[in-house]
Amino acid sequence: MIHGPTSAIAHAMAMSQQTTRRPRSEKKPIPDEQKDDKYYDRRKRNNNAAKKSRDSRKAREDEIAIRASFLEKENAILRAQVATLREEANSLRQLLLQKRSQV
């Protein structure tokens, strides 16, 4: 299970997908005597389409996870830079105040 900001992204994606789906119709088993070549061809095409859809969704989710990881690392670097710059600004302020008080 993913924790942190990436889990929030995954949860938001899951929720948005759930709201756009239409309800499934009730499954009815097809009698063997109605299963002809057309039926098996349609099943094969459907199975291939379902697999393609699952694979593309997994690829999208993997891409999003990689992007989120990259952004989290970049964010950590930027936060460290901000902290360093704030410390430098405070040091410079102190130096300026010292110079002013000496004059």
Essential attributes:
103 residues, mainly alpha, rod-shaped
- Name the helix and strand elements from N-terminus to C-terminus, one letter apiece: HH
DSSP helical segment count: 2
Assembly level: single chain
- Would you identify the regions where 5 or more consecutive residues have pLDDT less than 50? none
Mass-distribution shape: rod-shaped
Number of strands: 0
Helix content: over 70%
Share of residues in strands? under 5%
Query: What class do helices, strands and sheet pairing give?
Result: mainly alpha
Mean of residue pLDDT values: 88
Largest sheet: none
InterPro entries: bZIP, bZIP_sf, PAR_bZIP
Subcellular location: Nucleus
Organism: Ridgeia piscesae
Domain BZIP: 36-99
Describe the structure.
With 103 residues, the protein is an all-alpha fold. It is 80% helix and 0% strand. The protein is built from 2 helices and no strands. It has helices spanning 5-20, 37-102.
Question: Quick recap of the structure?
Answer:
The protein is built from 2 helices and no strands. It has helices at residues 5-20, 37-102.
Layout of secondary structure:
Blueprint: H1 5-20, H2 37-102
